[in-house]
Design brief:
This protein is α/β, with parallel strands linked by helices. The strands form 2 sheets. Strands 1-2-3-4-7-8-9-11 form an 8-stranded parallel β-barrel, surrounded by 8 helices. Helix 3 crosses helix 5. It starts with a strand and ends in a 6-residue tail after the last helix. The structure holds flavin mononucleotide. Flavin mononucleotide binds next to loops.
Length: 428
C-alpha cells in the first residue's frame, strides 16, 4: 500500500531567515549536539522516514544569521547513537569529495546506525566554495554533473567491493573470504580508485541515494541514479510538472516503479488559521527590512526603496521581459499573483523557504493540502522545512501527524529498521 513519506530538513534555528532573532530561538545551542539529538528524536516520535542536512563549503553575510554549523556527516555519527529507527541523510558534494572518502564515511555511518543512512549528492554552486578547494571559481555545470555521475558509480563500486557474506570470522581459519573482497580498479575521466574499501559492505548494501537536480543535467542524473528526489515546488501545478517529468524520465530509464519525489514544505500550524497567520507574521516582523529589501531588489532587478512596507506589492513586468535569472523571478511573480501580499509579507515568504510551498492553517487544513498533493501527482512525501526550530517541528508532530495517521496516509509505527525499508525501496 502506498504511504506518504516525511523527511525533516534540519537547518540552524529554522528555515525562516529571522528565526534565530526570536527571543525563544535556540541560537545559543547551535554548537550543542543535544540540540540536534532532540530534533531528531522529535522527528522519530512522529515516525518520520528521515532527517536531512544540507551542506555548503563556504560562508557569507555572516552578520545576517548563523552560517556555521557542524559538518553533517560527523553530526550523523552522534545522531546514529541518539536514535533507533529514523533514517539519517547527509548532503555530499561530488565536486569537492573523492569517492573513496565518501564511500568509507558513508559505509561507516551505515554500520554505526545499523542501516539508516542516505546521501544527497550535490554538485555545489558557489565560487566561494570552489575557492576553499583549490579552484578559482566553480567549474562549469556540465563538467560538475559529469563528475557527479562518475562519483556515484565509483562510490557504489567501492561498496560492492565486499560481498555481503565476505566476513566469516573463523577463529581457526580466515577472517574473510579472499575471493569475496575485490579490487575495483576504477579509472575514469575524473577519478581513479583501486579498492577494495577498508570496511565491509554497508548493512543496506548501498546507503540510499537522494538527488535534487532541477536543470536538464540534474534531472538526467536523478532519473538514472537517484532512489529518492528532493524538489522545489511553489504550488501543486509546479509540483505536478516536475513530478510527471521525473516519472516519465524514470520510466524511460527502465525504472518501472518510478522514483519517490519529496518537495520542500514550510508549515505554520495552529488551532485556528488566525493563530497560524499570527505566527508567520511574528517571524516576518523580525526580518531586518534593509537586508531583505536588498535581496528582493537583486531577485527582481528593481529599486524598491519607494515601496510601502505594509501596502500590496506593485505589479511587476512579465517574465518574458526579465533578462536576469528567471527561476527566482518566476517565483516572485507567482507569490504576487496568488497571494497579493504586502511588501513585508513577500519578504517573509522569500525569507522562509524561498520558492518552496508554504502552508498556513489548522492541522486539518494542512493535512488536506498535503493529501491533495500526494493523491494528485504532486508528491510522494514532503521534505519538511520548519520556519522555526524546535517549536514548529513539535507542532507538526503533535498536531498534523495524528491527522495524517487517522486518515491512513502515514505510518503509526515503524515497520522496518532501515531507511531503505522505510522508503519501500528494493534491497541492493
Ligand atoms: C531540498 C534541497 C536541498 C539541497 N541541498 C543542497 C546542499 O546541501 N548543497 C548544495 O550545494 N546544493 C543543494 N541543493 C541544490 C541542488 O543540489 C541543485 O543544485 C539545485 O536543485 C539546482 O539544480 P541543478 O544543479 O540541476 O541546476 C539542494 C536542493 C534542494 C531542493
Amino acid at each position: 500500500m502506498r504511504e506518504m513519506h516525511l523527511n525533516l530538513f534540519i537547518f540552524g534555528c529554522g528555515h525562516h531567515r529571522a528565526a534565530w532573532r526570536h527571543p525563544a530561538s535556540a541560537i545559543e545551542r547551535l554548537n550543542d549536539a543535544r540540540y540536534y539529538e532532540s530534533l531528531a528524536q522529535t522527528a522519530e516520535r512522529g515516525k518520520f522516514d528521515a532527517i536531512f542536512f544540507a551542506d555548503w563549503h563556504a560562508i557569507d553575510n555572516i552578520a545576517d544569521g548563523p552560517r556555521s554549523y557542524f559538518d553533517p556527516l560527523t553530526l550523523l555519527a552522534a545522531l546514529a547513537r541518539a536514535t533507533e529507527k529514523i533514517g539519517l541523510i547527509s548532503t555530499v558534494s561530488s565536486t569537492f569529495t573523492t569517492p573513496f572518502h565518501a564511500a568509507r564515511t558513508l559505509a561507516s555511518l551505515d554500520h554505526l546506525s545499523k542501516g539508516r543512512i542516505g546521501w544527497n549528492v550535490v554538485t555545489s554552486m558557489f565560487d566561494s566554495e570552489a575557492r576553499n578547494h583549490g579552484y578559482d571559481a566553480m567549474p562549469p555545470h556540465a563538467w560538475r554533473y559529469g563528475r557527479a555521475t562518475e562519483f556515484i558509480d565509483a562510490v557504489q563500486k567501492l561498496w560492492d567491493s565486499w560481498d555481503a557474506d565476505a566476513v566469516i570470522n573463523d577463529r581457526h581459519g580466515d577472517y574473510a573470504c579472499k575471493d569475496k573482497v575485490r579490487a575495483v580498479n576504477h579509472k575514469g575521466e575524473h577519478f581513479s580508485t583501486q579498492g577494495p574499501l577498508t570496511i565491509p559492505r554497508p548493512p543496506q548494501g548501498h546507503p540510499v541515494l537522494f538527488q535534487a537536480g532541477a536543470s536538464e543535467e540534474g534531472r538526467a542524473v536523478a532519473a538514472a541514479k537517484a532512489e529518492a528526489i528532493y524538489a522545489v515546488a511553489y504550488d501543486l501545478e509546479a509540483a505536478q510538472d516536475y513530478y510527471r517529468d521525473m516519472q516519465r524520465r524514470a520510466k524511460l530509464a527502465g525504472r518501472e516503479k518510478g522514483i519517490p519525489v519529496m518537495p520542500g514544505l514550510v508549515t505554520y500550524v495552529a488551532s485556528t488559521q488566525a493563530e497560524a497567520k499570527a505566527k508567520q507574521q511574528a517571524l516576518d516582523e523580525l526580518l531586518p527590512v534593509a537586508t531583505s529589501l536588498r535581496q528582493l531588489e537583486s531577485f527582481i532587478a528593481q529599486d524598491c526603496s519607494g515601496w510601502e512596507l505594509d501596502a500590496p506589492v506593485p505589479a511587476l513586468p512579465p517574465l518574458e521581459d526579465f533578462t536576469g535569472p528567471k527561476g527566482r523571478y518566476a517565483t516572485v511573480l507567482r507569490i504576487i499573483r496568488s497571494e497579493q501580499p504586502t511588501l513585508r509579507q513577500l519578504l517573509g515568504r522569500l525569507a522562509a523557504g524561498g520558492g518552496h510551498c508554504t502552508m498556513v492553517g489548522t492541522p486539518e487544513m494542512i493535512a488536506d493540502r498535503m493529501e491533495d498533493w500526494w493523491r494528485n501527482d504532486g508528491a510522494d512525501g514532503f521534505n519538511l522545512m520548519p520556519p522555526s526550530l524546535p517549536s514548529d517541528i513539535e507542532d507538526f508532530v503533535d498536531q498534523v501527524v495524528p491527522v495524517l495517521q487517522k486518515r491512513g496516509l502515514f505510518r503509526t509505527e515503524y515497520q522496518t529498521d532501515t531507511l531503505r525499508g522505510h522508503l519501500s525501496l528494493p534491497p541492493v
